[in-house]
Amino acid sequence: MTNLAAAETDAASPSVGESSLFQPLRLRGLEVPNRLWLSPMCQYSAVDGVPGDWHLAHLGDRASGGWGLLFTEATAVSPEGRISDGDTGIWSAAQACAWQRIVDFVHGRGARVALQLGHAGRKASLAAPWKGTEGSVPPEHGGWVARSVSAEPVPGLAAPLALEADELPGIVDAFAEAAARGVFAGFDAIEILAGHGFLLHSFLSPLTNHRTDAYGAGHRSGLLEEVVVAVRGTIPAHVPLLVRVSATDWLPGGISVADTVLLARRLAALGVDLVDVSSGGLLPADIPVRPGYQVDAARRIRAQAGVPTGAVGLVSDPHVADRIVRSGGADAVLIGRAALRDPYFALRSAHELGAEADWQPQYVRGAWG
User: Fold this and answer.
1) Structurally, how many domains does the chain consist of?
2) Residues 277, 308: contact at Cβ < 8 Å?
3) Could you count the other beta carbons within 10 Å of the beta carbon of residue 213?
4) What is the DSSP letter of 242?
5) What is the pTM of this model?
6) CA dihedral sign, ordered 264, 172, 123, 67
7) For residue 357, which of 26, 39, 65, 109 has the smallest C-alpha distance?
């Protein structure tokens, strides 16, 4: 049985007129109560990688909002793997303990939460977007030298140092150790960030990976596959493992959806339970951005790779999200910007779709009649 078949077997089948979006989805030992999930969104508000009161308020508020699964922001597996000095991390016990406080609060609201693990690669050492500083933050101003697949920079950013082959096992270990800390902190699922131009994506794409060693042409997915094997071997068997990908670079010679279908098959065989489908982020590209513009890729990967998928991309209408799931476009829909505007978007969506919703007892008086 494929991962997709297993997920469909465990999920309740909606009856006629019933919302597909608010049916449960089982991934390994985790039953997610609905298919409307909070997308990972950087908050740039940590100190030394430690999540604080802002993160408790941000995720805690949305834990009361009816979402099936919450995701943390991209959480760095090492100090140099942060996008900015305000990124959260989980390379230390202190960070894991700070996350445990937040996870416990989320669980107390009856919600589930996943930890997204990332390494920024050549997109590291940037300033928070509201600071008005463009380009890389140099070491003399509190930044650091980024490390990546090669010394080729992102246009407009400082050149990184190329990772040597003997350094890559340390990257793999950092992901595995971070995942173990995530399990200690109580996270319900682990997601590996392998898109948006960050480290693992830069190894996957032929536009950035020109290496001549074992991680180059012919095996560009090697580092990601090693990370998946290491993380899957570290976390308990009942904990789901997800991977976020950029399904296409939207550029000639870059990653295509057909490439990602093949990658998704390999990832599923290695124990990945759901592929979270995004796109772009590697290099400037002409992307046809519109609501649901990445759903076609999620649908194709789901159908052709036989693995559950999540779809993300400017979806802000509950009826559109419901149709995505009902039509087989994806097994879950992840919401970002709309969730920043409305932490209770999922509760409102349930009301509009005629589905049951679990309100916090303190807020029941505000429920739609």
Assistant:
1) 1
2) no
3) 11
4) E
5) 0.95
6) positive
7) 65
Residue 124 exposure: Cα atoms within 13 Å on the Cβ side: 28
Nearest CA among 19, 25, 11 for reference residue 242? 25
Task: Name 181's Cβ contacts closer than 8 Å, sequence gap at least 6.
Answer: 90, 91, 93, 95, 96, 99
Write out the E strands in the chain. Answer: 25-27, 30-32, 36-38, 69-71, 75-76, 113-118, 147-148, 161-162, 189-194, 241-246, 274-278, 309-312, 332-335
Q: Which residues neighbour 188 within 8 Å (Cβ) at sequence distance 6 or greater? A: 30, 69, 112, 113, 114, 239, 240
> Which range of residues forms the domain containing residue 82?
3-366
Rounded Cα distance, 243 and 266, in Å: 12
- Cα–Cα distance for residue pair 153/122, rounded to 1 Å: 7
Pairing relation of β-strands 25-27 and 30-32? antiparallel
Distance CA(7)–CA(23), nearest Å, equals 12
**Contact call for residues 235 and 175 (beta carbons, < 8 A):** no
Residue-by-residue pLDDT tens, the chain, 369 positions: 345 544 443 443 344 345 799 999 999 999 999 999 999 999 999 999 999 999 999 999 999 999 999 999 999 999 999 999 999 999 999 999 999 999 999 999 999 999 999 999 999 999 999 998 889 999 999 999 999 999 999 999 999 999 999 999 999 999 999 999 999 999 999 999 999 999 999 999 999 999 999 999 989 999 999 999 999 999 999 999 999 999 999 999 999 999 999 999 999 999 999 999 999 999 999 999 999 999 999 999 999 999 999 999 999 999 999 999 999 999 999 999 999 999 999 999 999 999 999 999 999 999 997
Q: What is the CATH number of the domain that holds 30?
A: 3.20.20.70
